[in-house]
Amino acid sequence: MSKRKYLITSLMILAAVCGYILNKNGSAPTEVVEKNAPNRIKTKTHKKRYSLKLSPTPQEKEYSLTILENNNKEKDELTELHGEHLLTFKSREEMEAFLRKSAKYGIKVRARINVLNSLKVYFPSKESASDFRSSFPEVDLIGDNPAVQIPEPLLQTQAAGLRASPLDFLGVKDNSGWGKGVTVAVIDTGIMDHNSLKGKITHIDLINDDSEISAAHGTSVASLIAGDSKLIKGISPEVNLLDIRALNNEGQGDVFTIAQAIVTATDSGAQVINLSLGSFSDSAVLKNAVQYAQNSGVVLVAAVGNDGQGQVSFPARYPGVIGVGAVDANENYLGFSNRGEQVDVMAPGMEVFAAGTDNSATLFTGTSASSPIVAATLAYQISQNPDMSTDEIINQLYNGANEAGEPGDDPLYGTGILNIGRMEENSNANTSDAAAAGFFLKELPETDQVELSFSGENRGNSSIGKVELVLSYPGFNQSYSFENVQESQSFFESIVLDKNSPVIKNGQEILLQVKYNDDNNSKNDSKGVRIQFK
Length: 534
Hints:
The protein is α/β, with parallel strands linked by helices. Helices cover about 15% and strands about 25% of the residues. The strands form 6 sheets. It has a 7-stranded parallel β-sheet with strand order 8-9-7-11-12-13-14, with helices on both faces. A 4-stranded antiparallel β-sheet has the order 1-21-18-17, with no helix packed on it. It has a 4-stranded antiparallel β-sheet with strand order 3-4-2-5. Strand 17 (about 435-445) and strand 18 form a beta hairpin. It starts with about 40 loop residues before the first strand and ends in a 5-residue tail after the last strand.
């Protein structure tokens, strides 16, 4: 019998339901739609598809002068300057002109990023922004230096912890040699010595506060990329790690330092950068740093954040940055994982085995754990496919993600859940795999009903001529037919349920099955669920 996966989810977030279908008057479900109806088959759109041909360059890009608060609501343009601020110039010459006369006005320059034409400055006394503009017309942008921190996950109940290495979850059988020759930068709290990290590590400290690294966060992140011990197994153990310490031992930092770290990683030869950190404040300096890295061919991967919000944190929100959310061991969306159209892909983020302090192991939870799993997967892909373009590498990652949640790209799961085994399998010729993908539940306004969508996916590398979805529960069995489903496309149906129907009230088991004659993988042909409202 095919393995079933059971999901219990709340109505507010997700979608895992299969139920006895009754509309308000208790009649049977709606009729089956036409075969191969265009709106019942979806192709992944990859809204944030990466491109190396980014233009204009950071120096030419124009940004709004609007400053964003931590809650991401606009506030008035700066009228008074005091304390620390970030300045951006349109050219190196204009920045140098400012530097020549800034000391005369008592402005202290604390740091600079030459390639971004950006400065971090300090105003010891209050200064009128308009007067400053008159004195320094060469300054293009003035902004705050927002705080950045590692995302702390909210309390998550009724979630299944992985409590293992992520390799089995991702379908990896043997990762020997993965990542060889690829440099992955970890911008974080720093990487401590740990017996699971045996490869080459280069350390760069941008904090420079003479403190000893005591935060395990950066070490945990690094171990999910390159860990290689009996208990702690990263995805790509042969990568070269570039450890850039840009957050202090409390996991706190600022936008300018993160921008410095991105530029440093790029100039030091990183091919992939992991950012398990974030802020809800936008910044021209950070955005320019991201674009600088992308123009150099670097792939940036970032955690979407653990605030349970309907907005993704920066830098994951920027175009081209791969925003990573978190699922549990049963592939359920984790409620703390931020949502939005900038969510690109999901990976395990609940109690994943990772490196802790003093050579210990820890259970790592949050999108901070999910992000390095994706970054390490990209390193594996690059090492295995040196002739593939960055676009091709990232599209392979997205196309190999398992459909979940609402059919097609969606704000919870993005393109789906990372599946390395599927990517490996599809590198072979003629793989046929039709899978039961998932469920999505939403309330119908001003009614006592809900709409349940259920979907399958073509996870092989060839088209499917004809496939069926079969939905069943006590007293009901219905088949839905689809034709000409292409690689990575999802196919779906939806039904209307009364909230007082027995399948919901009694929590009855519902089963979704896929039937396809030429299927090479029967392990993912069924999925069982129960509905629970809270």
